[in-house]
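Readers outside the structure-tokenisation community will struggle with the description of the input data as it stands. For illustration, here is how one protein appears when written out as sequence plus structure tokens:
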Amino acid sequence: MRLFHLLKRRPLCNNLHFILIAILLLMLSIKYYFFFIALGIYLIFIVLKTKYIIPVLIIVLLIVLRYSISLIVKNIEIEGVNQAYITDKDDDSYTCYIGISKILVYDKSDFKPGDIIEIELEFYDDDLNSYPEEFNYSEYLMSKGVIKRAKAKSSKFISSGFSLNSIKYHYLSFLKSKLSSKSYDYIKAIVFGDNNLESNIKDAYSIIGISHILAISGMHIIFLYSIISFILLKLFKYYRSLIPNVLITVFVVIIGAPPSALRALLFLLIGSLNSKGDIRYTKLDILSISLILMTLFNPYLVYQSGFLLSFLVSFVLIFSRELIQTKNKLSFNYKSYLLIFFSTLPIVISFSNKISILSLLLSPILSVLISYILLPLSFILAFIPWLDYFLKYIYIFITDYLVNLSSYNIYISYPSFNIIKASFYYLFFGLFIVSIKRHKLYILFTISFSLYMLLIKYINYIDPNSKVTFIDSGQGDSIYIELGYNKGNMLIDAYNSFDFLKSRGIDKIDYMVLTHSDNDHIGDYKKILERFNVKAIIYPKYDSRLDSYLSPYKNKKIKVDESYKFDNTFKFDILGPINEYSDVNSNSVVLKLSLYNTTILFTGDMTSQEEDDLIEKYGTYLKSDILKVAHHGSDTSSQEKFLDLVSPNDSIISVGKNNSYNLPSLEVVERLKRISNLYMTKDLGNISLIVSKNRYIINTYR
């Protein structure tokens, strides 16, 4: 009875944020160890200033326990043939449970949620990040409860069963057969929380600055609750929240409880308790309880961008009335949008790496358009799909309008925030908001915040060091070179490099060298040419296939047969190809780069034939401090006589982990280790050279 009385009085009301802050610091500490210092200081503060050290420690210990259980489940070995229960299905994959382990399986078999199958799996290694700002796919899967991913070596249907997800699966299949593709994609994203819109549409929403409407708002749950309540009130004179809450709960469970929908549901359920008890829950209480419950359910949710955005936007809206003092509704809405825009900027930047000028002007209006037209329309079509014959044109118009609008958009390319940059951003932004609210020192903090934003954008202009980054692009090649003081840059090959380049916030590329036409060297060239201002493309004179690929860019093309120079600190000589061969690898561009007093030899996928040509023509001029090893360490190149002439201090192999070609060759590895220090991207992630006037330093991410 005493416990019931305490719960009824809600003794932690208005102080739950103490627990919330401890949770966030804990999860940051698990990922970034230096946050343990902040967590320790915060716990000392709790002891000295509040009475809540026991509740804080209990919740912290529960989350540590839940996190540890996730790691234990993740390390369970699954071997041989196992029985699996399918929970969800996509076009070429499904999720299933084997025991207590939830696994993402790449398999095109025609299974359905609820099916029980027999399966043998080949597991993938965890996806390790290659640079700080890279999207962490393993954490993303863990936030969805998936502990491993695999491909099916064999699978066999045993029997059908029931799954709540089967309701969603079958209904989506029904809608797909009735709706146009664009209408279906929008309804799937807005109503069911599966955002599989085409990449150009996602980019348009992101560039314009309204991606949160589709991704994180939870507005569809509030909208559905309002509709159900309205119907019950008008038709049945029913004033209680019980039936709407039950129906919304069932709906959220059926659609798979995406974080934004679950947060909105918890807001409704906890808010409905305000009619009972002695103390009312504030909106901050409800936000705190929701986050605590969801983190206890799955601690990895804290690392999911959509989850963070959802709660961050809610947090900002709670205090918007207090921070924005105006009676004009239009002015309030616009200022609220600006507050949300800057509050979420470090996270949103990771999607597009653009700050849209247009979004600052039009996004509040477009948000209203999406909220009051697209949202209701999607629910109407979800229940009356036959209306798509007329309504599909609205989706087409909105999509075409937003895509065209984004193409004319004025934007600033901006680098991604790592955890340190983001921490200082929120420090400066918080001081700026407090100064505005208190009308004290706001000029000082406005200047400080603005200078910090400029520093992140233009820090390369004050950095004297040049950098050469061997991008961990998997089984392919891509190297990005940037000169000190941002005097110029260069990209050598373009496989799986677009996301890295985008994360750097670059606007232009002075030279893009495509060594030859194999996909593992040119894979992202179209995206790069469309996104960045590429001033010149250098490519081999004996590669007709690449010549054809680049025909739309005739004004940028430069065939190899000369040397290039930026200034006295940077030049590169095109050494090959010298002769034409039938093998495209033998026609690879080979270039020697001189950066201050450091020389680097880049070799593409050249073979021993091209090596012989280079030896005959250049001899000792091949000597270089650093060698980018040819053809991912294959034994088709890197002959001993060639390596003896190059005689590098350091050799770097760009190669993918567990690749199907079994590269690099062990024989080549032994040759290289005898004459140099050897670095491989598959083990070390991105490999960077920091080059100054008299020396270079090699840094590796892992």
